[in-house]
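Repro:
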Amino acid sequence: MSDLAKGLEHALFDIPNTTLGIAVSGGGDSVALLHMLAARGDGLRAVTVDHGLRRESAEEAAQVAAVCKRLKVPHHVLTWEDCGKTGNLQDAARQARLRLIAAWADAQNINHIALGHTFDDQAETVLLRLARGSGVDGLSGMAARRADGPLTWVRPLLHARRDELRAYLVENGVDWIDDPSNEDPKYDRVKARQALAILSDLGVTKDGLVATADHMKDARVALEAATKTLADACLEITDAGEARLNIGAFDAAPDELRYRLFSATLQWISGAPYRPRFDSLRGVLTRIGEANGQTLHGCVIRSHSGSIIVRREVARVTPPCPINSVWDHRWVVTKRGHDPANTIAALGEDGLRECPSWRDTGHAREVLLTSPALWVDGQLVAAPLAGMANGWAIELKYGKKGLHKSLKTR
C-alpha cells in the first residue's frame, strides 16, 4: 500500500464508505480523493456545488458527474440559487457550500463528508492566520475532523502534498480541472502560495508551518483542559439554561482561560458556530459591573450578586420548530403531556402572562421570556420552566454538561 493510501486509511480507520460523502469540485485534490475513496469499496456518495460564479461551472459539474458515473459513485449537483454576487463572494460561497452540503448529507443519511484539503493547504492556512494575528487556536490550522451537529467534516489528505496527488492522477491516467482562480493573485490564498516561494529563503517553509500547527494543536488541547477545570470551579448552569460565572474564581484565572470560557459560554447559549471577535469579548468583560445588560453574540450579559450572568437575548431566539426537533440549538422535549402541541417556541410576553405562578420558579423574568414553551396553532399548551408543565417536560439537549462541548475548538 502506498504512503498516500496508508495515510488515507489511518485518517478514516473508523469511517466506512457507507456513512461517507465526498465534496468534489473537479480540481486535482478532490478528484484524487474521489478515486482513492472509491477504491475502498461501495457506499461512497459524491456531491458538487455549482456556485454559478463562472460560466464554466455547470460544465465542470457535469464533468465531475461523468467521472463519478465511471467510478459507479452516486453523484448530486447542488446549485447556489441565492448568490447576490456582492460583498465577500469567496466567504459567501464557502458558507453556502457548507450549508448546501450539510442539508444534502442529512437527506442522504450521511454523517461524514470528506474534503480534499492537503498538506499544502494546511501550510497556507497557517501563514494566512499568522498574518491576521491569530492565537493558538488559529495557528493550530485546519482540523482533521470537525463536528458540526450530526455531521463531521473530515480531511483525510492533510498528510498528502499537492504534487503527490498530481503524480497519482497522472500515473492513473486521470484528468482534472484547473480552476483559473487558483492562479489569481487577488485572492489571499494565492498570495500566500506565492509568498511561501519567497519566504523559503528565510527558512519559512511548508514543513515548518505545518510543524507549528502540530505544536499549537498540543497547546490548544492543554488550554481546553485547563478551561474545563476553570468551568468546573466557577460555572453554574441553571435549569432554565442561563450560565452563572462566579466573579471571584473567574477573575482569578489567567486571561486566556477567562476569554476561552466566556466565549464558549456565549457560543453554547446562542448556538453560534464561531467565537465572537476578541475585541468585542474583551470589551464586554472590561465593562462588567459598569454597563449592566450588555449584549453580545445573541446573549445578554449581566453582573449580579458576585456572578456574571449570561442569558439568551430575547430578540435572537430561533423561530418555532416542530416538537420533535431541537429548538434554539439546545432544547428538546423529553416528556409529552395529554394536551397536544405541534411546535416549540419562546414563551414570550404573551405566554408569560398565562403563567400566573412563574415567580415561584425562582427564574428571572428575562430568562423565562426566552424559555421554550409548547404551542398549538398559536395557543399556549405548556411552559415547563415557567411553572405550567401540564405533563410536558423540556430539557437541555446535552444536559448541563452540554457547554463542555463548546470548550473545544470547532
